Amino acid sequence: MALNLDARQRAMLEAMGITVWLPEPVETAVALETSAVIEGTELRATEPAPAMRATVIAPVAAPAPVSAPEPQSAVPAPVAVPAPARAPARQPAPILPSHPHEPRQFVQQPAAGPAGEPGLGWTISPPQLVYPHAPQHVQASEQGGWLILLEPAANPPLISPAQKPTPDSAQTALQGDAARLLDNMLRALQLQEKPRVFSAALHRAPPDADLSHAQPLQPALETLLRELRPDCVLVLGLASARAVLGRHDALGRLRSEPHRIAGVPTVVTYDPNYLLRAPQAKAGAWADLVQAHAFTKPV
User: Fold this and answer.
1) Which residues form the domain of 222?
2) Does some domain include residue 36?
3) Is 171 inside any structural domain?
4) Which runs of consecutive H residues, i.e. helices, occur in 141-262?
5) Where are the strands (E) in the chain, listed by range?
6) Residue 111 belongs to some domain of the structure
7) pLDDT tens per residue across span 168-186
8) What's 172's domain CATH number?
9) Which residues of the chain have a pLDDT value below 50?
């Protein structure tokens, strides 16, 4: 059976790597016309040409895989790849910003009045000696030393008798491990030998208190400083620092800046209760205490 292929079909097969061995149709037509004109005997002599055509065409039947243009149909198939449909599955990323703020739950915000003034409604307790059993030969001095300001825990934990401060340890409004940590830090500076180390507790107004006639903390604190005349003031914790300084800044800024209250150098540092939860901040707290100690005059 003859396979009639035009030039376009042969070009397609050649592009696909399939070779078709066919005699040129033009040459065959010329041979037939020439043989018919010359003689009938010569026409018989040219009879083998069709036989050759049959014999040559027979093996050509093998290119039945002419249907092999399948690669053309395979080309558009990748167009239906649903890769872009997976992109929306990666969009739950906006949930992440909520997690980095969880570790800051320890921050205590100071009580503020209707105008948002820090320290409004806060009160200060009478000062007490931190080391009442210090050597007596230097207690005649009427100025110098430290004043430590701190806010007691609103809900102090229950402590065992072994956790209560001993008469020789620091006497402050702190309790338990926080009191022991502060005592160790003060002893590292040999302050247990200095009698003029005072501590005063700061108390904020209850959340439901009427602050319409409340007074700010700063005037009472300045009066106390004029009476004690310490060398420096050490403020423990963010809430206490904001109330004392009358500012809304973050603790990092308050720690890094120099302060003075009634002319007395003031240093802000971490609350010991926070240091128990974040031991990595102890090095910074120690640097703050060393800075405060630099303001202390020798006795």
Assistant:
1) 118-154+163-205+214-293
2) yes
3) yes
4) 176-188, 218-228, 238-245, 251-256
5) 123-124, 128-129, 146-150, 197-203, 232-236, 259-261, 264-269
6) no
7) 788 898 888 999 999 999 9
8) 3.40.470.10
9) 41-46, 49-58, 60, 71, 73-75, 94, 96-115, 140
